[in-house]
Amino acid sequence: MNTQATGADWRFDRDAVGTFVFSRCSFDAQTGIAELGYRFDDSPEFVEVVTVPGAPFTLDAEREQAIAAALRLLHLIAGVSYYKAAVPKTIVIEGEAIDRLTADFLTMVYENGLGEFAYRNGLELRGEIQFPVGVTSEVSAQSLGLRHHALVAIGGGKDSLVSIESLRNIGVDQTVTWIGGSQLIRACAERTGLPTLNLGRAISPLLFEINREGAWNGHIPVTAINSAIMTLAAIVLGYDQVVFSNERSSSYGSLIEGTGEVNHQWSKGWAFEDAFAAYVQDRIAADLSYYSLLRPLSELAVARQFTRTDHYDAHFSSCNRNFHILGERPVNRWCGACPKCHFVFLALAPFMSKPRLVSIFGRNLLDDESQTAGFDALLEYRDHKPFECVGEGKESRAAMTALTERPEWQHDAIVQRFAREIRPQLSGEDLRVSSLLHRSDDAHRIPPAVADALFAYWDRA
Ligand SMILES: CC(=O)N[C@H]1[C@@H](OP(=O)(O)OP(=O)(O)OC[C@H]2O[C@@H](n3ccc(=O)[nH]c3=O)[C@H](O)[C@@H]2O)O[C@H](CO)[C@@H](O)[C@@H]1O[C@H](C)C(=O)N[C@@H](C)C(=O)N[C@@H](CCC(=O)O)C(=O)O
Ligand SMILES: Nc1ncnc2c1ncn2[C@@H]1O[C@H](COP(=O)(O)OP(=O)(O)OP(=O)(O)O)[C@@H](O)[C@H]1O
Predict the structure, then answer these.
(1) Cα(16) to centroid of ligand 2, in Å?
(2) pLDDT by residue (tens digit) across 389-398?
(3) Domain MurL C-terminal spans what residues (predicted)?
(4) At 396, is the secondary structure helix, strand, or coil?
(5) What's the mean per-residue pLDDT of the chain?
(6) How many angstroms separate the CA atoms of 434 and 300, rounded?
């Protein structure tokens, strides 16, 4: 960036940027519009806009204070999209200063959430991201008397639909909520027949401009941003639960030789959930619970649960190519060639009839030799687990092993090749799907009353 120039003269040069500035944030209760402002040095302001429908909102003083805290958290987390464009050495927070606890939490989110971004760009960010601390400590949050009601995030794929159906079955009041303009997610949300809420999010168009001008680019912890948006909305609307559908498997990343673990899904993992939920209860609203309903389950257990109803077969998709802000989307919801398509096909196959699965995807991915490399990566065979939201290698190996024993699948090209070439090398491993379907009851934040009913429901189902 040419730091001498502003306004129309301004040009982005990522190597010349010295400072990333959190310039301002605001929420207007009359319109439901939140604005989040950022700058590099003296650049024009990058403004992200988040909208909570249903305005005007009438708020008492305690709720206003909680909204200010939730808004600031959102401002600080959503800054990751802009910060990454230049990863400058200095971070400045204009306006209200933050304390050590907040700074440490943000450093954790940025370092880990940008782990894949740093690895792919050959950058070293660990130890480099310093949020300025300006006050010794901040006030603890109070209980706001929030109403028992869950804002449940829906992403258009199988996971959130499993949560929504589980909550419906145990009688938890819920609003099915999504962020952004995806028509696919809208169709799934409407298909639930439950109350829905669509939160607006518009990234600053300037970000797309500087991307074209050579900004650093790559993956960001989008679930952290979505979590902060949902938290703001829950406080505005007066609800006591924000529910995500992040499974146990998402806490495990890709093991890269010479680098270690890099987790594409870091902000879906337990470390983020636990820290974010604790921060929200400590600093925003003591009676707001943020949790993932599926944390005790593996991807395979979620897939099995999904197959219990065919109500969403013609509507859902887990293929992330549907969710680009810019660019093309698959014609029939499943591109059939990406890691998510490969994994979801494989994970559902042990639990679903073959005709049903093939009709969902419109083709049989396991009988297509051109997809061999994609499945190899899932199996962690001659490659690492893809940077995508897919299950652990052991889950893919167990699912594939199960298919080698099923007459309807065992003759398909990819399954045959697994049986011939890969399975003999796995003789020491427990390859039973049943070993991966257990529920882990220790690391989760599901409120006790919900957990009791939920586990009883899952045990019955
Ligand atoms: C849909 C998708 O997978 N997008 C990823 C892709 O972005 P791409 O450039 O191809 O297109 P757009 O999504 O349209 O984004 C345009 C640019 O906007 C920037 N950006 C976007 C969203 C945002 O929140 N912040 C941003 O800065 C970015 O510069 C884009 O270039 O590749 C990008 C680079 O690797 C990814 O960052 C895009 O991922 C989206 C943020 C996204 O929403 N992805 C989810 C489908 C996703 O990956 N979910 C993960 C959850 C992981 C987590 O820890 O949260 C998952 O399912 O595993
Ligand atoms: N646009 C969105 N708005 C709100 N929440 C979202 C959005 N996209 C994803 N999520 C949530 O983020 C979490 C992770 O998304 P993910 O894509 O793994 O889930 P999914 O779409 O429900 O299922 P699948 O893994 O099959 O794609 C889920 O809780 C999902 O509901």
Answers:
(1) 36
(2) 888 899 999 9
(3) 316-425
(4) helix
(5) 93
(6) 9
Q: Whose CA is nearest to atom 8 of ligand 2?
A: 155
Write down the domain spans for the chain. 3-292, 299-436
Parallel/antiparallel/unpaired status of strands 90-93 and 147-153: unpaired
CB atoms inside a 10 Å sphere around CB 41: 21
Measured between alpha carbons, how far is 272 from 172 in angstroms, rounded to an integer?
25
pLDDT tens per residue across span 1-27: 444 445 567 889 999 999 999 999 999
What does the DSSP 8-state code read for residue 190? H
Give 327: exposed, middle or buried? Use CB within 10 Å, 0-12, 13-18, 19+: exposed
Q: Is the C-beta atom of 226 inside 6 A of ligand 2?
A: yes
Does 276 sit in the ligand 2 pocket, CB within 6 Å?
no
d(CA 188, CA 35): 28
Do residues 147 and 239 lie in contact, with contact meaning Cβ atoms separated by under 8 Å? yes
Q: Are strands 260-262 and 174-179 parallel, antiparallel or unpaired?
A: unpaired
> Which pLDDT tens digit goes with each residue over 217-250?
999 999 999 999 999 999 999 999 999 999 988 8
Average pLDDT over residues 438-460: 92
Q: How far is the CA of 161 from the centre of ligand 2 (A)?
A: 9
CB-side neighbour CA atoms (13 Å) of 202: 11
- The predicted pLDDT at position 251 comes to 83
Number of other residues whose CB lies within 10 A of the CB of residue 429: 14
Do 148 and 167 meet the contact criterion of CB atoms below 8 Å apart? Answer: no
